[in-house]
Amino acid sequence: MVSCPECKGAVELREDILASEIVVCYACSSELEVIAVEPALLALAPEVEEDWGE
Ligand SMILES: [Zn+2]
Question: How many helices (H) and strands (E) in the chain?
């Protein structure tokens, strides 16, 4: 589990996640890029705000 940089919620990562993969935070729906895996570190992915409705 890693903290979402956007909402601080817990984000679950697959055990075989790789750096530079994109994951989605279930709490805030932000796209997060895996910056590093050991230890796991997430950052907001670029170009997220394309079709943000509400
Ligand atoms: Zn989040």
Answer: 0, 5
> Is 52 part of a structural domain of the chain?
no
Residues with CB under 5 A from ligand 1 (ion): 4, 6-7, 9, 25, 27-28, 30
pTM, to two decimals: 0.79
CATH number of the domain that 24 lies in?
A: 2.20.28.160
**Is 9 domain-assigned?**
yes
- For residue range 9-54, list pLDDT tens digits in order: 999 999 999 999 999 999 999 999 999 999 999 999 976 566 767 6
| Beta carbons of 2 and 41 less than 8 angstroms apart | yes
